[in-house]
Amino acid sequence: MVKSIAYTLTAIALCIGLFIFTELYLHNQFNEFHDALNALYTKIEDETATRSDALAVKAIWDDKKEKLHILIPHNDISYIDYWLNEACGLLAYNNYELALGKIEVLKEITKNLPDAYSLKLENIF
């Protein structure tokens, strides 16, 4: 009986630890990517951004998404890929106004997406 209670409490503690680690990891990864998007956004506003700047942000995202595939659905990852690729294409033609809109959407996605997978009561029910 005592062993069963100990095993159950250990399993609960491990699950809680895993949930906390996952939430912190997701927020850290998306905060770093969000910072890179903010830097690109500033360059686009100043009309000094180039396609290589956007590709550098894309490289950061490509590195992060390899690790995030196990934590968030592939659809959310491909959604970010879609908007980022559009911004890269627009910057290739120096279309700063439209690229700014794409990066604005990406900033909003990266701000809100980690909260969608947080351990919150609203996400459970």
Can you characterise this structure?
There is one protein chain. The chain has helices spanning 2-45, 51-68, 74-92, 96-116, 121-124. The chain is an all-alpha fold and 125 residues long. Helix 1 runs antiparallel to helix 2, helix 2 packs antiparallel against helix 3 and helix 3 runs antiparallel to helix 4. The chain is elongated. The mean pLDDT is 90.
Question: Can you give keywords for this protein?
Answer:
elongated, mainly alpha, single chain, 5 helices
Topology:
Layout: H1 2-45, H2 51-68, H3 74-92, H4 96-116, H5 121-124
Helix pairs in contact: 1-2, 1-4, 2-3, 3-4
- Please report the total strand number as a whole number: 0
The CA-CA distance between the termini, in Å, is: 32 Å
Order of helices and strands: HHHHH
Described by the principal axes of the CA atoms, the overall outline is elongated
- Total helical segments: 5
Indicate the mean pLDDT: 90
The portion of residues assigned to helices is over 70%
Major beta sheet summary: none
Structural class: mainly alpha
* Proportion of strand residues: under 5%
Given as residue ranges, the uncertain stretches (5+ residues, pLDDT < 50) are: none
User: Rg from C-alpha positions?
Assistant: 19 Å
Quick structural overview:
By secondary structure, the chain is mainly alpha-helical. The protein has 5 helices and no strands.
